[in-house]
Amino acid sequence: MNAAMYIFCMLIWGLNFIAVKIQGESVSLEVALLYRSVIAFVLFSVLLWVLRQRVALNNVNVLTVIGFGLCNFTVSYLLLYYGTFYSTAAIVTLIFSMKSILTPVLISIVFKKPIAPKIYIGGFLGVLSVIVILYPDLNHLSSAFIMGIVMAMFGTIITSVGDVLSLFNSNRGTHPVLANTLGMLGAVLFLLFYTLIRGQQYTVPTDVNFWIGLLYLSVLASFLAWLFYLKLIKNIGASESSYMVAMFPAIGGLASVLLGESKLSISLVLGIVLACLGAYLALRKKDVSNHYPH
């Protein structure tokens, strides 16, 4: 059972940005993310109601919980969505895997803990993986593609900030279901306000691909995979569960090639191997805390 849940989480989260690409642009990216957040919020609210007798409501710092939601479910998602459409799902997945290095670094800074040397090695390999993939086309990259890379990097940094807030909430004793429900509520309200002031239309697309992508992202990625991940942390430990992040670049890269978005090349394969190795090195000890990968 643990193996099945592990593979499920690894594949679902590894294909996250492929699903964003498949979803298309039937509606704006902001409205698509709003729809995703609403569905996920409803699911978390139902789960919170089911668990209501086991969830304490008095260990909540509203600012850090809402901040966690805005970082992990809103601002980072928007930047990563933009990055996926401006560049490729493969490169965004690769960049996002570097959160396995960024999160421990930020946790070390905020909570005044020493940074293990393996984090620096993993970070170097992560940066090197991006350079290796981009180098053959360095003179031909469009400004839009570069913008996509920059957005993906900022999205990953903000996700790591959200992970730090998540650890703060966890240390305070906030139940993860409550934190995710309130965090998702903050995401819904922010996106609703953001789309309203921009005058965007809340249309209901008829494109089948949109609904496949939306349900994948909201039900499978944002809800079910998260529940399985919590179960894995309980059954096999947080460190062992977090190893799956190391495989995200390989899964996303392979899917990108199969869908014809990226071309199979030596630089792509080498970059993916370096990214996986860097993430693995950063996660391989039990003293590294890693959180909900998205």
TrEMBL record:
<feature type="transmembrane region" description="Helical">
    <location>
        <begin position="177"/>
        <end position="197"/>
    </location>
</feature>
<feature type="transmembrane region" description="Helical">
    <location>
        <begin position="119"/>
        <end position="138"/>
    </location>
</feature>
<dbReference type="InterPro" id="IPR037185">
    <property type="entry name" value="EmrE-like"/>
</dbReference>
<dbReference type="InterPro" id="IPR050638">
    <property type="entry name" value="AA-Vitamin_Transporters"/>
</dbReference>
<dbReference type="GO" id="GO:0016020">
    <property type="term" value="C:membrane"/>
</dbReference>
<dbReference type="InterPro" id="IPR000620">
    <property type="entry name" value="EamA_dom"/>
</dbReference>
<keyword id="KW-0812">Transmembrane</keyword>
<feature type="domain" description="EamA">
    <location>
        <begin position="147"/>
        <end position="283"/>
    </location>
</feature>
<feature type="domain" description="EamA">
    <location>
        <begin position="6"/>
        <end position="134"/>
    </location>
</feature>
<feature type="transmembrane region" description="Helical">
    <location>
        <begin position="144"/>
        <end position="165"/>
    </location>
</feature>
<feature type="transmembrane region" description="Helical">
    <location>
        <begin position="242"/>
        <end position="259"/>
    </location>
</feature>
<keyword id="KW-1133">Transmembrane helix</keyword>
<protein>
    <submittedName>
        <fullName>Drug/metabolite transporter permease</fullName>
    </submittedName>
</protein>
<feature type="transmembrane region" description="Helical">
    <location>
        <begin position="209"/>
        <end position="230"/>
    </location>
</feature>
<keyword id="KW-0472">Membrane</keyword>
<feature type="transmembrane region" description="Helical">
    <location>
        <begin position="85"/>
        <end position="107"/>
    </location>
</feature>
<feature type="transmembrane region" description="Helical">
    <location>
        <begin position="60"/>
        <end position="79"/>
    </location>
</feature>
<feature type="transmembrane region" description="Helical">
    <location>
        <begin position="34"/>
        <end position="51"/>
    </location>
</feature>
<dbReference type="Pfam" id="PF00892">
    <property type="entry name" value="EamA"/>
</dbReference>
<comment type="similarity">
    <text>Belongs to the EamA transporter family.</text>
</comment>
<feature type="transmembrane region" description="Helical">
    <location>
        <begin position="265"/>
        <end position="283"/>
    </location>
</feature>
